[in-house]
Amino acid sequence: ERRALKYAALASENNELRKLMNSSEVLDDRVIVGEIVGVSPDPFSHEVVINKGSRDGVVVGQAILDANGLMGQVQQTSSFTSRVLLVSDSSHAVPVEVVRNGLRAILLGNGDTSTLELVHVPDTADIREGDLLVSSGLGGRFPKGYPVGVVTTVEHDPGQPFAVVNAKPMANLDRSRYVLLVFSEETRQLEG
Fold it and tell me: What is the 3-state secondary structure (H, E, C) of 70-137?
């Protein structure tokens, strides 16, 4: 029974790694695989620790993905580990665009791993539930075109200049064990 449980755990890990490798084939940038080895105990801080650090070429500001989408960015590095700030953290923001029409906005974390907020979207903007949001590449922090979230709700209030838009993160922020560290042109600029 113990062996069967171990095989089940190994099969699950193998499936997660296979998904991660399939998603890395889609990327144009160089990537390395890292593993989440720690989670912040602070309920108001959405941070994880990964087992890759400066000796692996990891730099502050580097984008981190799981098999489904953008998870966050490196906040701090040491030789062997790095601290990653997740997109759901209330201090995190990602410039995004709607794939369907190119509409640009900022996606903010709000301390909830299941929802993100799209801010400063004009009430008249063409945005709908189900729209895919990808990183826009503006600001030079995140590479362009990585999936970040899917719009879940759009509320229009005629008296307000901005719509209230929420999105579900694409990445499994509270479940992923393995991550991809992206080495793109932006990363090389952060190093230099």
Answer: EEEEEEEECCCCEEEEECCCCCCEEEEEECCCCCEEEEECCCCCCCEEEEEEECCCCCCCCCEEEECC
- Give pLDDT, residue 133: 93
Q: Which two tokens stand for residue 6?
A: 């171990």
- DSSP letter, residue 57: T
Q: For the whole model, what pTM was predicted?
A: 0.81
DSSP per-residue codes, 145-191:
T-EEEEEEEEE--TTSSEEEEEEEESS-TTT--EEEEEE-HHHHHHH
- pLDDT tens per residue, range 91-105: 999 999 999 898 999
The HSE-up count of residue 118 (CA atoms within 13 Å, CB side) is 34
